[in-house]
Amino acid sequence: MHFILKYFTFCLQLKNIWLLLISFWSLFPGFTQAVTPENLGQMYSVQGHFEKAIHHWQAALDLDNGKPSKNIEIMLQLSQAYQALGLSQQALATLSQAELLIEQLPKPLEPKNLFKLAKLFLTKSDISLATRKDIQARFYADKSLNLLPSDAPALIRATVLNNLGNVLTVEAYYANAVKTYANAVELAQLAGNVLLSGRILINMAYAYSKKGQWNTALQIL
After folding, report:
1. Do 97 and 68 contact (CB within 8 A), yes or no?
2. What angle do CA 193, 133, 210 make, to 5 degrees?
3. d(C-alpha 85, C-alpha 50), whole Å
């Protein structure tokens, strides 16, 4: 018991040091080049403080004005923060701005730009599902799949397939949804992402329950 108390005390000390460093960096942004509005946006997003994340990503857009490629990445993250807060219209407006920027790039059909478009349409599909616009969700899911490069990272492929599985479930194609989720789980585990793997398995269990296979659904859960 004494060892456990010492361990938790040590963890709390580390946490306090980390929070102190974050506060220092926020007060003195010029102290280190690593602490930028974009990095702070990412940090707050991971912590679930999406309002703060949005504030810093908007500041990052102001700083990176004139750099379309960088702005596109920031807008994709900004739209996801809006989505997390349930601000669908703001998320879609931001994605539309990003799509226009991609189309204006010198080489919009380059693999890296197609990859950005795939992520953009993936987010649009997610938002369409959340707002019960099933036809749009299918449209954007298909566009995302068609644009995704064959050498895309396992994590993004798993995310795209999870979205497709959700669309198939909404369309009541439960058997196809289960197969799609199975592929997505394999890719998520390959990427070492436990959180996404768990989310996909929950979605798969729901698809099995819609098929009436309750025992299988419970086993997956």
Report:
1. no
2. 60
3. 7
The encoded tokens of residue 21 equal 């460093």
Only one residue has tokens 């993250």, namely: 77
Cα 165 from Cα 188, distance rounded (Å): 14
Place of tokens 């993004």: 156
pTM above 0.90, yes or no: no
**Are 188 and 155 a contacting pair, CB within 8 Å?**
yes
Matching residue, tokens 């954007």: 140
Give the separation between CA 186 and CA 101, rounded to whole angstroms.
34
Cα–Cα distance for residue pair 129/53, rounded to 1 Å: 24
DSSP secondary structure letter of residue 107: S
> What string of DSSP letters covers 17-34?
HHHHHHHHHHH-GGG-TT
105-157: per-residue pLDDT in tens? 877 677 788 888 888 999 999 999 988 899 999 999 999 999 888 788 899 89
Q: How far is Cα 165 from Cα 143, in angstroms, rounded to an integer? A: 15
Please say whether the beta carbons of 84 and 90 come within 8 A: no
